């Protein structure tokens, strides 16, 4: 089917609606002979009479009524296709970014400002999730790229995605203000014996910290909290101690609400970066955003 056939189908539908060659010509802004020619070609194509002619009016034949149902369906499908194509074009112009709650909460304000200065016309949608939900979004194909923590034991991520490292976090011991250990020059792993350690929901982070405690033969009590922010509130309320990235507590330490200390021989680190589905073809906007994020972290680390 070509565009000329669609044009003739449109003529047929209008003529069936108004029952007049003259009125059809007015509605379609063309000559009456053109209308007659379109109908004649359709009748030759289907090898049947589509209209009964009676003076200046016409009436559909039974064959014409059948064609009218299909003709309307055809135009509806063309309209539907046009809308979907337009929606896809609009979606392609919007950059969707999937990012962990941690990276979004502590770094994306500056990153988004930085990107907007470089690409002021690029529209952005940002979706923030916990690690497990980000992995689910990747598995379901909602995105080919995500900015997230990188855990060595997540076989799915390492086998299905190319990984680019952006920065590394040191997890430091977090104490409530006024805690006796805040005055000590040195804190050892053995000091943690029988202490309550608050953990976030991430199974990988829980396992990693638990393994480090076991490695140093330290028995502690673990309590689970929903996220870093909830853990900070719990530490302030003296419900336990925690290991968190310094970025998350810098403001609290400055305000005197929390104490931050290192533990001798305990080296807790976590890598953060972005993952890209192997063999995926990124859009120019996605490529530009990734490069801009890399430049941002490179500049940040160079300034330290």
Secondary-structure map with pairings?
Elements: H1 3-18, H2 21-27, H3 32-46, E1 51-54, E2 57-60, H4 62-92, E3 94-100, H5 101-118, E4 123-129, H6 131-139, E5 145-150, H7 155-160, E6 161-176, E7 196-199, H8 203-215, E8 221-224, H9 228-236, E9 241-245, H10 246-254, E10 258-261, E11 268-277, H11 284-303
Parallel strand pairs: 3-4, 7-8, 7-9
Antiparallel strand pairs: 1-2, 5-11, 6-9, 6-10, 6-11
Summing up helix and strand content along with how strands pair, one would put the structural category as alpha/beta
Biggest sheet, open or closed, and with what strands and sense? 7 strands, mixed
Note the overall shape.
rod-shaped
**CATH architecture heading of the largest domain:** 3-Layer(aba) Sandwich
Question: In total, how many domains does the architecture comprise?
Answer: 3
Total of DSSP H or I helical runs spanning 4+ residues: 11
CATH topology title of the largest domain: D-Maltodextrin-Binding Protein, domain 2
Distance between the terminal alpha carbons, to the nearest Å?
A: 65 Å
As residue ranges, the low-confidence spans are none
**What is the CATH C-level name of the largest domain?**
Alpha Beta
Oligomerization status of the protein chains: single chain
Round the Cα radius of gyration to an integer and report it. Answer: 33 Å
**How much helix is in the residues?**
40-55%
What percentage of amino acids are in beta strands? 15-25%
How many beta-strand segments? Answer: 11
Instruction: Provide mean pLDDT, rounded.
Output: 92
* Relevant CATH superfamily of the largest domain: Periplasmic binding protein-like II
User: What is the H-and-E element order?
Assistant: HHHEEHEHEHEHEEHEHEHEEH
């Amino acid at each position: 089917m070509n565009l000329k056939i669609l044009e003739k189908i449109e003529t047929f539908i209008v003529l069936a609606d108004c029952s007049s060659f003259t009125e059809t010509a007015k509605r379609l802004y063309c000559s009456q002979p053109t209308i007659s020619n379109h109908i004649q070609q359709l009748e030759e194509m289907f090898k049947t009479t589509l209209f009964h002619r009676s003076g200046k009016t016409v009436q559909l034949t039974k064959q014409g009524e059948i064609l009218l149902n299909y003709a309307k369906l055809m135009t509806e499908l063309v309209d539907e296709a046009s809308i979907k194509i337009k929606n896809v074009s609009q979606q392609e112009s919007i950059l969707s970014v999937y990012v962990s709650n941690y990276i979004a909460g502590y770094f994306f304000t500056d990153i988004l400002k930085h990107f907007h200065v470089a690409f002021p016309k690029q529209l952005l949608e940002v979706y923030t999730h916990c690690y497990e939900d980000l992995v689910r979004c990747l598995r379901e194909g909602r995105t080919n790229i995500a900015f997230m923590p990188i855990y060595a034991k997540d076989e799915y991520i390492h086998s299905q995605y190319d990984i680019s490292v952006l920065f590394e976090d040191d997890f430091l011991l977090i104490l409530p203000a006024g805690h006796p250990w805040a005055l000590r020059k040195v804190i050892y792993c053995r000091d943690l014996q029988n202490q309550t350690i608050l953990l976030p929901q991430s199974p990988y982070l829980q396992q990693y910290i638990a393994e480090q405690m076991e490695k140093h033969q330290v028995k502690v009590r673990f309590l689970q909290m929903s996220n870093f922010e909830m853990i900070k509130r719990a530490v302030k309320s003296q419900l336990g101690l925690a290991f968190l990235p310094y970025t998350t507590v810098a403001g609290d330490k400055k305000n005197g609400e929390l104490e931050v200390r290192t533990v001798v021989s305990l080296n807790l680190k976590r890598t953060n970066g972005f993952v890209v589905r192997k063999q995926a073809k990124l859009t120019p906007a996605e490529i530009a955003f990734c490069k801009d994020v890399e430049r941002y972290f490179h500049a940040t680390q160079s300034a330290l």
